[in-house]
Structure formats: C-alpha cells, structure tokens
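Following up on my earlier thread - several people asked me to post the actual chain instead of describing it. Fair enough. Here it is, all 340 residues.
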Amino acid sequence: MIRNYIKNTSILALTCLQLSCNKEQLTEQPTEQDQNIKGNEFCLTDKINNESTERKIDPWVEYDYNPTKIYPKSVRKIGLIFNILETAKTKKITDAQVQKQVDILNQNFKGEDPEIPFNLPLPFIRFGMSEPSGISFFVKKINRKTTRIKVWDANGNDYKLGDGIMGGNGNFYLNIWILDAISDPSLDDDEEITGFAINPGVDNSSSKSDFGVVTTREIFFYEKESHITYKTHNRSKTLTHEVGHCLGLYHMTGVDSKFNEVNCGDDKVSDTPTQAYFHYDYLKYPYFDNCHGQNFNQMFMNYMDYTPHDVRCFFTNGQINRMRYFFQKGKYNSELGTKK
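Reply from S.P.:
Thanks for posting it. Predicted structure:
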C-alpha cells in the first residue's frame, strides 16, 4: 500500500523523499521553548505488563511464533469500546472527537499516513506495508462516567473498578480507557505518561475485560486544541502506538527472553533494525544506534518508537505479519474483530 501511495503522489512528494535520504529533515522542528512545555511522551506498556504480579505475559502465548514465516492475511473489523472518565470540571470529549481518533487509526493501519511522503526514506520503503493491513476499527460503544479522581495510579485497576468503568469483552473488542492523567512515582518528572496497553497473553480471564488501552485525554485531542501542551505529540498517533501493543508489537528496543524490556533487545519482527534507545527528538536520516558493537540504521519514523507524531508514519510488513500471527485460530486475538 505504501508503494502505491508513494507512486501516486506528486513529484514534490518524491522530491521530499529524496531529500530525506540526504539528511534533510523536512518537518519543522519545535523551538526549545516548545520542547520544554512538557516532558517526553512515555508509554508504560512494558513496565505494566511485566512488573506487577497481576499482569504477566504468558510465555506460551507465542510458543510457535516464527518472525520469518508469512502468516495468512486476516480481515478484521475491530470494535472499540471507549470508556471515558472525566471530572465535573473537565472539558468534555465529544463523540465527534472520538470518531476522529478512529478515522486516524484506520488511516494509519491502511498505510495512508499523510506524513509518509515527507518522512519515510527511500531505503525503508521496501519494508513498509505493501498492501493494506486488513485491520480496521469502528466505534462499538462510548461509555462516560463523572468521577472525582483526576490522577489515576498506573499500577492499579481503579480505572475499571469502583469509580472506574468495567471493560467489555476483550475477546471480541478492544477497550479504550480515557483518563484525565496517569501517575507512576517511579518515573522522572520529565516523563509524562501518555498511556499503556495490555499485551497478548497478559489478561487470560474468560472475558479479558482488562484487554485494551489506557490513555490520557491530553493526547486524545488533535493539533491546535486550546488545551494541548504536548506540542510534538498532537497528531493522534498515541492510540496507534498503543493499539499496536494490543495486537502483539513491542517497542523498537525489544525484549529479552523473559519479555522484559531491554536496550538492544528483540522486538520479534524480521524487518526492523536493532535499537539501543527510545528516540524522542527530531532526528536526521540516516541515524545510527550501536548495539553489540555494530551500527544499525534506525527506523525512528516507525509508530512503535517515541519520536514526535509528525515524524512517525508507518508499520512494516513484518510488524503486520506479527499481528496476523495472533489472529490465527487458537491464538490470543483469534476472536478479536469477528463480531459487530
């Protein structure tokens, strides 16, 4: 799909791609003041799924997974259950804003991100989605609840118990909890938690009511909404990143044999480079990380990294292939997206 998308773009777009290969970063970089408005976007998925006793990845969840094997395409229309928790004074998230999130999510999973012509370097085009993923999303239900809690503990389950909203059946649908703010005392002050997701193999209850994404309302809005303070993370791609986790993807830095997040680990995808660190900034291509004494050309424009939203623009064929593994009969997401 990315090949077709680029083929049909204008000569100007192709010129932009060529410039990106010559280390020209075309995206306007924020001022130092903009960068310091809030800290780095930070996803807690790996920490939440491995450090708590209640949430642990079942090591058998992918016992026969082979990243070099091509798994069959599976068309899935995944219903999203939005669980919105707001205080009485919080600016309300409208149904239209929810739908806009879903529209952007679908655009990204089709391989039609508008940033592709400007940020995907020519050497990486062959790794991009060669056809639409077959994965799409729709709003199944929007639940709303007014609560007195403004900051939610990332290590607890309050968002779905007591003052929270119990999730729907995670076998068939994805739950999306939207909170005012998320806290974790173990993090530095400059690391703002934007959300986390539940990986396949973590919630093995009969209804999988914990399966889904927990995110914050500040990242939920798009572009120049008046309250936005994450000026480099305001293109609604946080949800794309977190849903990627639910469908089986790790961060680009990868994990070790016990599924713990490490630097220079294995993200279990065949066509992504080994990565030493999270990338938060505007970078110029090519950019290299050194792992195990070898330099690796970095794919910092991938949705599963942490670069600004106007840099991130694609999943690889290998990442989509890994998602398809979990859709197979008997696998963790085998029923996901099979009901309206």
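The beta strands are 40-43, 76-86, 135-146, 151-153, 173-179, 181-183, 191-197, 212-216, 288-291, 294-297. That should answer part of your original question.
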